[in-house]
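Minutes, project check-in
Item: structure for the 273-residue chain
Input as provided by the requester:
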Amino acid sequence: MNEQEKIFQQLKKLFDENPESFNIIEEEIDIDLQMEYLKRSKKLHKQKQTLESVLEKVPQLYDPEIRIEEKRDILIHLANFEEVEAFRTIEAFRDKATGDIKPWVLMAYRESKMVLESSLLDEKQILISTGLGGKGYKLRFFIVLVNNNSEEYSETQQKLIHTEIEYTLKHANGELESVIFEHDLAQITALIPINMSVKDTIKSAIDECNQYGNFIAENFLVTNIKKLNTEEIYQIISEKNTDNEIKSIDFEDDFDDFDDYDEDEEDDDDDLF
């Protein structure tokens, strides 16, 4: 069992025992920004400030002359308080925030919500953070199926892929958001429950499709970090391709718990099947 599979099994066990303790960042936020937020949050958490002193700075959030770094720190300080007033303050600004500060307030909102729930429920909450976000208890994934013959999918093949992927996801309580066909690629965006194996779910759909001509490569690309463009996909395939066979291709799978995050440690657990 590789590291990614171990992480999945651990998360599945935790989720099956107490799904209410899981919080998923639903918005699509650049993973580098998320890591920067986590590091900054860890650092500022060590600084002792009163809620009153931080609330006095809240008007600065709405001041266009204040630097984004200062606004970021105000939001992070607010998110560290186990107080409803701090959460409501972030929530109010979230509804008005635009531009570069928007992802910072979204991160602060999710952290504050988790901190508040942990306090009220007297139970540790787990925050799942990925670049593509999710919905409810489902994570969003970007998946690429490569044509086995390096040619465009026919209209019949396209319909079959769409039908089988949609059916398989629905059977797994997932959701198909989109399928885009370009050259010899089928680019899929889907929501998959956190306690379901992405590898097994997609492989099942591929196996069903391949009963009608073995036209999809056995190995596929999957990531929850970002949606790749065509050039990036082909570059990855080219780098990993030997003897005209697509080998293992690596992607990130970041599951970050705010309470356990170590600012000196970064996960690069990248996988493709």
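Outcome recorded: The chain has a mean pLDDT of 83.
No further action items on this chain.
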